[in-house]
Specification:
59% helix, alpha+beta, four-stranded antiparallel β-sheet, elongated, Alpha-Beta Plaits
Amino acid sequence: MSDDTIRLATVGRMIHRRWRLLAVLAVLGALVGYGASLLFPPRYTTSASVLLPGAWEERELLTQTEIATSSVVVDRVAAALDWDGVDGGELRKRVSAGAADGNIIKVSGTADTPERAQRLSDQAAQEFVAFAAGITGDGAGSEAAARPEELRKLVVRTSRRITELADAADPGRTVESVQTRTELAKLRTALQEAVTELERIDPATDEAGMVVMGPAARPDGEAPPTRIQLVVGGALLFFLLAVVAHLAAARASRRPRTEPEIVAALGAAPLGTVDVPAERS
């Protein structure tokens, strides 16, 4: 067999002859997988979606995912949850974030129970939005929201005052008065353009206005690898390793099997052949 190509028929014959040993090894692999599942407790994962209004480039979305999993945000999550024996360093291994289509950041949390996984994802999304709002100044409250309106009122009052000064100026009798009226007219035009620009800006298009798109769904199944996956994977792994080991040993074996190999090994011509009946199952 050392020079023959391994065919499915060869593998089938080997499995038929060694099925008891292969079955024992598969059971042993399943037991190893079950033991591994006891060492790794079940984990549950869920995600909360955060919508980023406006136009965002891919690199900007990647930056937001890094912010969502940064130590500052995760430490805030740990402080808000206040779980026993779980600090920010531990949560950094359980919190992840990724960019999805439609300017959406998915913040995922992994915990040992479905309830904790859901709470972790929701809290991580909320802390991410709060931290991003604090960076851009969205957390300034009503005072920040009132500043654009106050600026509009100030511009309108200034424009009216400019009109009054222009009307009160000497109507073109001197060069200085003409220059003054011209400068006042330019200033009034610039202020009117500023007012128009302020009115055109829609606060809803602010890229910093992130919104959490509802609570995370409670996971109804364990995150892979589950116990069943470990058991089945262990059985398949041991079975395949046994098959590969048998085939490798057969290819490496120098025992003569065919008639030419036997003749070459004995150095004599065969006197005859004997048909061996197939083994009964």
